What does this fold into?
Amino acid sequence: MADQITEFFDVQKDFVKDGTQFINRCTKPDRNEYIKICQAVGVGFVVMGAIGYLVKLSTDTHAILAIHIPVNNVLVGGA
It folds into this structure.
């Protein structure tokens, strides 16, 4: 019984030690790194927005090149 208790507290102690080491190794991004991250996120937003707009546009209008994407089947799992 005592072994289980010490093992339980050892796991907790190791978790706190690893978490503390991780936080101490983390650094705040400098200005250039922050700008690069913001640019990458912005490009991702624009690309995903454009893809979503094109898919929505193609499913709303019955154009010759309309793309049919079965959204309900994707979301529900084809049940």
